[in-house]
Amino acid sequence: MTSPKFEAFLAQLYVDAGFRARFLADPQGLGAGAGLSEAECEALGKIDREGLRMAAASFAAKRKPSRKTTPLLRPVRRLISALRDRL
Amino acid sequence: MGLDRVGLSWRPELAAGILSNLDRVDAVEVIADDYFERSPTKVRALRTLSGQVPVLLHGISQGLASTVAADRKRLDKLARVAGIVEPESWSEHLAFVRGGGHEIGHLAAPPRNRNTVDGTCDNLHRARKIVGSAPMVENIATLIDPPGSDLTEAAWIEQIVTAADCGLLLDLHNLYANGANFGYDPVAFLERIPCHRVSVVHLAGGRMLPEGRVLDDHLHAVPDAVYDLLSALSARAPQPLTVILERDGNYPRIEHLLAELDRARLALRAGREVHVA
Fold first, then answer.
1. Which of A20, B150, B158, B163 is 20 to 30 Å apart from A71, CA to CA?
2. CB contact (8 A) between residue B115 and residue A7
3. What is the spatial distance between Cα A20 and Cα A40, in angstroms, rounded to a whole number?
4. Confidence band of B196 (pLDDT split at 50, 70, 90)
5. How many CB atoms sit inside 10 A of residue A74's CB?
6. A51 closest CB neighbour out of B98, B106, B144
């Protein structure tokens, strides 16, 4: 048991807060709606909810852009880095 | 201590401290992904570095522990960096990092079952063909017990490294964290994995979350329990080990990190004196 579809479902569960909220309201229903197998839906029904919340928060913190570089400055930084590489 | 080595993760913030203390840093581990988009000149700088201290390459974004085939372009980038640097070895995590177009942004534990064993072995075979050598694979820390698992973490790892004939990079803080988070004994875990396949070891520190689970954040000193695990490992793994201390922020003075390396040397030596068959 584990298909690319199941991994895609987990990835969305870890990164998409809205999807996660819908999931927590009806784990097996959302899994079935996504075309997951019965065994996969059953596994989702038994998910470690506390762990899911902590893991999602941890992943979100990792995805946060560095405070050292604002999004607007990032292309400038990349340009400076590319120029420096060529020197 | 024989041929055991103890070194540091290579980070820009630590570079000066490492280069001025090469008599106390036996090896460095470089994040390969940081060089994927760099010019050949920048990558060759790593080759120069490898003339001063042994360099190991470490990947973080391949997502090889998956039922989805590893991305050819990303592996090509790793192969390019490895081809220029010619590291002693390279490694990747037993993690998936994306799925269905969603980038998780960090290492996620896949379901531990026969399908992911097979998918991971296929990806390791693919990586070996493209890069020219197989990676050592690293156990990861997780805050969630991965759903859809019917194998223990130890059994899952053992099946992968045996079937793919890969080396194991054993992260002892990840082992410590998972043991604390999911209620198993990390020393008993060492009895269930093929310790003879371990050649590189990671040490790091983390913190206890308010919810009572350990987060492996690489921002804190190595806890005592992890040094104890290093002794337990070196008692069971007679082959030479390269131990890398990982630090990703909240950087202390280099002397502090060098003292952690010295403590790791002592822990290795203590284990060597107590051989466990």
1. A20
2. no
3. 16
4. very high
5. 12
6. B144
The pLDDT of residue B275 is 73
Interface test with B, best of A9, A10, A87 (most B CBs within 10 A): A10
User: How far is Cα B92 from Cα B162, in angstroms, rounded to an integer?
Assistant: 16
Cβ atoms of A40 and A3 closer than 8 Å: yes
pLDDT at B276: 74
CATH number (3.30.360.10, 3.20.20.150, 3.40.50.970, 3.40.50.2300) of B5-272 reads 3.20.20.150
Q: Is A1 in Cβ contact with B115 (below 8 Å)?
A: yes
Helices (H), A2-70: 4-15, 17-25, 27-33, 38-45, 49-63
Contact B85, B50 (CB under 8 A): yes
Residue B168 has pLDDT above 60, yes or no: yes
Contact B99 A46 (CB under 8 A): no
Residues 6+ apart with CB under 8 A from B94: B64, B65, B110, B120, B137, B138, B139, B140, B157, B160
Domain ranges of chain B: 5-272
The pTM of the full predicted model, rounded to 2 decimals, is: 0.93
Q: B39 and A40 in contact by Cβ < 8 A?
A: no
